[in-house]
Amino acid sequence: MSDGATTAAEQQDAGHRHTAEGDPCAADQAAERYWTVDEHLADILAQVQPLPPLDMQLLDAQGCLTIDRISAGGDLPPFDNSSMDGYAVRVADVAGATAEYPSVLTVVGDIAAGTANLPVVGPGQCARIMTGAPLPPGAEAVVPVEWTDGGSGGRDAAAGMRPASDTSAGAADGSSGEVKVFRPADGGDFVRRRGDDISAGQAVLPAGTVLGPTQIGLLAAIGLDAVKVRPRPRVVVLSTGSELVPPGTKPGPGQINDSNSFALTAAARDAGAIAYRVGGVPDDAERLREVIEDQLSRADLVVTSGGVSVGAYDVVKEALAAEEDGAEPALGKIDFRKLRMQPGKPQGFGLLDDRIPLFALPGNPVSAYISFELFVRPAILAMMGVEDVHRPVVRATLTQALESPSGRRQFARARYVLGRPGEAGSVTPVGGAGSHLVGSLAQANAVVVVPEATTAVAAGETVQVILLEAVPATEQ
Ligand SMILES: Nc1nc2c(c(=O)[nH]1)N[C@H]1C(S)=C(S)[C@@H](COP(=O)(O)OP(=O)(O)OC[C@H]3O[C@@H](n4cnc5c(N)ncnc54)[C@H](O)[C@@H]3O)O[C@H]1N2
Ligand code: MOO
């Protein structure tokens, strides 16, 4: 029987005909409560609290949600400034200017971006000005340098745009002397008005905004160096199993490389957490308890994998429980339960110290990953203050028949492809139901959800699909 197959107890539970004869555990198991996926998730979300807000430096706050509505303290731009390199002019002075009959103006100053002392531009005068530099008093518009002779009294425009520090052209560098203007200008031409982007007091981001690059840029632009957000949860990921050796170490007889702690740490990061991978801990309850206790100082959430089923070395329960001799109290109130789902039947969840959520996920790699997606990811998002903690769900046409155990909601990993505009996409299962199949898991970008009461879905039927990744418009 594969590890994904239904047990006799589940078949009985799901209404299959079954006798307890020859199965000493059947009566007990039939009486045991099986949780639905929805009940388990609801229990988790009822116990997980958003983290308290913190003032964080802008770049540390990337990906976090703002707590307050944020308003600008001042206007942006903070002063009228030029949008072009050119000459700041008075409109009347350039009225009717043409190439044949240019306006000839006296250049009274040179204004680079960042200049504080501005010349006053009087009638018949202008000032050379660079992009972003403040419009000087008296000037009403900017004429781009391309529409002038460059201020050289006949030299080309490019030469006229030499920086003022470049004295090689003497007074003919365009920053003094005279300039010929070949076109007229209206008031405000090539001028970025003070406050035309954002005015003082304007709300720029509502509370609950996810801070991406453009929002972080905006906060910097209005002068904030820190922002109040819910921080990223610090997630400690550890895997249990005496068979585990880290990648890079050649497994000996009976050993395998620990993959869960890597996949789950990466998944926690992907969800927005700061994740710490704590390598494989052997099947030794005392050792595991010590490791968990050690990690509590830096954990907002703990994820373990392995050791939660009924095997003789399933140590997670033992590590978390009170010691039998009463020497140590329980590390937390963790409930171990069975779910009507496949993969991911055995699950542990509860709070350490009444506050730190602990997820004890099954050890099978596919079970651990799917469990993370369904339960841990939403918890991480809820701790960050995200309201919709669910992955996108779409309907798609199944390309291959699927079988599913009765009484368990199956999450079949699959590859989803977008449909043509207006059409449903299609979804193809990858790999089988075995919870050890990491090769096919890595090809999946989605999971097909087969409801508890459905045991077979034919090719061509429409199914519900949870998208695990952003789906490209066309498949390669
Ligand atoms: N008699 C029963 N046996 C099992 C049942 C059951 O109901 N009755 N449930 C099966 C199901 S379903 C699952 S899922 C697993 C869950 O078992 P554990 O959580 O106790 O996990 P382990 O026994 O430690 O490991 C299971 C499997 O996964 C491999 N593994 C574990 N950790 C890692 C890791 N970090 N990286 C890679 N692979 C890992 C481990 O070697 C085992 O092959 O129990 C079934 N059994
Ligand atoms: O089926 Mo287990 O539930 O492999 O996770």
Automatic annotation (TrEMBL):
InterPro entries: MoaB/Mog-like_dom_sf, MoaB/Mog_dom, MoeA-like, MoeA_C_domain_IV, MoeA_C_domain_IV_sf, MoeA_linker/N, MoeA_linker/N_sf. The keyword Metal-binding applies. Its EC number is 2.10.1.1. The keyword Magnesium applies. Residues 1-10 have a biased composition (Polar residues). Pathway: Cofactor biosynthesis; molybdopterin biosynthesis. Its cofactor is Mg(2+). Residues 155-177 have a biased composition (Low complexity). It holds the Pfam family MoeA_C. It catalyses: adenylyl-molybdopterin + molybdate = Mo-molybdopterin + AMP + H(+). Keywords: Magnesium, Metal-binding, Molybdenum, Molybdenum cofactor biosynthesis, Transferase. Gene3D superfamilies: MoaB/Mog-like domain, MoeA, C-terminal, domain IV, Molybdopterin biosynthesis moea protein, domain 2, Molybdopterin biosynthesis moea protein, domain 3. Residues 236-382 form the MoaB/Mog domain. Residues 1-25, 150-179 are annotated as: Disordered. PANTHER family: GEPHYRIN, MOLYBDOPTERIN BIOSYNTHESIS PROTEIN. Catalyzes the insertion of molybdate into adenylated molybdopterin with the concomitant release of AMP. Belongs to the MoeA family. This is Molybdopterin molybdenumtransferase. It comes from Streptacidiphilus cavernicola. The lineage of its organism: Bacteria, Bacillati, Actinomycetota, Actinomycetes, Kitasatosporales. The gene is glp.
